[in-house]
Amino acid sequence: MTQETASLTETPMPGANTRKVFIKTYGCQMNVYDSGRMADALAVDGYAPTEVMEEADLVLLNTCHIREKAAEKVYSALGRLREHKKARAAEGKEFMIGVAGCVAQAEGEEISRREPAVDVVLGPQTYHRLPQALQKARAGERVVDTEYALEDKFEHLPDPTKVIGKPRSVTAFLTVQEGCDKFCTFCVVPYTRGSEVSRPLSQLLTEARRLVDSGVRELTLLGQNVNAWHGEDEQGMAIGLGDLLYKLAQIPGLARLRYTTSHPRDMDDRLIEAHRDLRMLMPYLHLPVQSGSDRILKAMNRRHKASEYVALIERIRSVRPDIALSGDFIVGFPGETDQDFEDTMNLVREVNYAQAYSFKYSTRPGTPGADLPDHVAEDVKTERLARLQALLLEQQQAFMQSMIGKTIDLLLEKPGRMPGQLIGRSPWLQSVNVDAKSSQIGDIIQVRITAAGPNSLFAEVAEG
Ligand code: SAH
Ligand code: SF4
Ligand code: F3S
Questions:
Q1: 423 marked as part of a ligand binding site
Q2: What span, in angstroms and rounded, lies between the C-alpha atoms of 82 and 116?
Q3: The domain 407-461 belongs to what CATH superfamily?
Q4: Is the CB of residue 191 below 6 angstroms from any atom belonging to ligand 2?
């Protein structure tokens, strides 16, 4: 047992839980997971979470560096926090500012130089050291810790079920893999999150069981490139994400599994079999393709052709016909011609997505894409994005409409706006409102979809 976990069993110090932390999370689900773990680490240090920035003694920005705008947002938020810190100092109150996540990793010292009000800067691999960093900062040191830690942070983070008193939500994220070795030429992730590292099977099974014991019914496995997860089973045999899913599926009490985000090149046979065999593996797959043009896919270093992606989807659909597809797209990658863009539109028509994210290419200094010739003009990117988004929206709406009249399983997640109303999640990741007075959060009930809004569905409890 590590020192950090050992200290959890000690009696809390007087005055514990008097300080409050406000954590603002930007970016992907991995950051959402990390923010939760940072809150756990801080709980040991006597910090309680708050949703209200004004009452916080510590504000942590867990940042994203994926597009230029994401990083800019952080600096403008820091400017506002500096003013707040001044006001608090005038009242003689402590107010600390921490920057974590991918901007912290990418910019390090530069953050404290640009914004001296920042007390601590911690990368995604060092946030388990947060309490120590705050202590140093209180002693007047400005802490920047973005080294890739030699120790495994997960071994040093406290067990959330021991430090967080209130019951967890019925759905949870579980990071199984971090970093990426794919080096797509537009992307900062291999630089901010480092190379691919998979968490060991036993650690994951332990964390998954703890989550289920605390009331979690649906687990979403996370990784920047989640289907690159690999490990060893109890006999020392090499296993991949498909096998991990089969193992997790055995945990009593766990009802649903999902995983995100996958790379088309790592969708192996075993993973496709898992979609065929495991009813609890939800029929929803986020499988980004980025572009439908082979020329652009090559320039992006995606290392597959558009036709291979379409063939892969056909294989997955042949074993799980009801699977809903989701994707990510980038328009206006350097060198993208009208024809390349039309290829993307055609691929979207061929695949038919239930949901998707699409972005204008954003130049990221230090990535190979930044140095490519023929950057696309902003107005061209804007026009292409609008056309692509209109098509994706049309497909999403059609998918929502196709649900009307169907009877489906619904995992009830939280109270709705009206008394007696609950909000649940469909197997296809849609939010569903239902009047279900005799059911409770965590139940999986059968409902009949009655109507579709732009982003959510409405349902009634199915008879019998
Ligand atoms: N690992 C995941 C995605 C990580 S980033 C994958 O391989 O799909 C999430 C999405 O942000 C990407 O899929 C991509 O569509 C988008 N993105 C990444 N870098 C970008 C950039 N420089 N400009 C615009 N969009 C970008
Ligand atoms: Fe970025 Fe590509 Fe890795 Fe996804 S697979 S994180 S887009 S480098
Ligand atoms: Fe952003 Fe880092 Fe996630 S750059 S998308 S927060 S991995």
A1: no
A2: 9
A3: Nucleic acid-binding proteins (2.40.50.140)
A4: no
Under 8 Å between Cβ of 15 and 49: no
Three-class secondary structure of residue 78 per DSSP: helix
User: What are 249-287's pLDDT values in tens digits?
Assistant: 999 999 999 999 999 999 999 999 999 999 999 999 999
Q: Quick one: 286 exposed, middle or buried, by C-beta within 10 A (0-12, 13-18, 19+)? A: buried
Among the listed residues 133, 219, 221, 114, the one whose alpha carbon sits nearest the alpha carbon of residue 177: 221
Q: Please give the angle made by the CA atoms of 32, 365 and 33, to the nearest 5 degrees.
A: 10
The correct answer on CATH 3.40.50.12160 for the domain covering 3-145 is: yes
Residue nearest to atom 7 of ligand 3 (CA): 189
Minimum-distance ligand to the CA of 333?
A: 1
Q: Where are the domains of the chain?
A: 3-145, 407-461
Q: What is the pLDDT of residues 91-130, one digit of tens each?
A: 999 999 999 999 999 999 999 999 999 999 999 999 999 9
SS3 238: strand
- Alpha carbon distance 1, 428 (integer Å): 40
Give the separation between CA 306 and CA 333, rounded to whole angstroms: 16
What residues line ligand 1, using a CB cutoff of 6 Å? 66-67, 186-187, 189, 224-225, 261, 263, 288, 290, 328, 330, 359, 361-362, 364
Q: Is 222 exposed, middle or buried (0-12, 13-18, 19+ CB in 10 A)?
A: buried
Q: Which atom of ligand 1 is nearest to the CA of 225?
A: 1
Nearest-ligand number for the alpha carbon of 260: 1
459 assigned to a ligand binding site: no
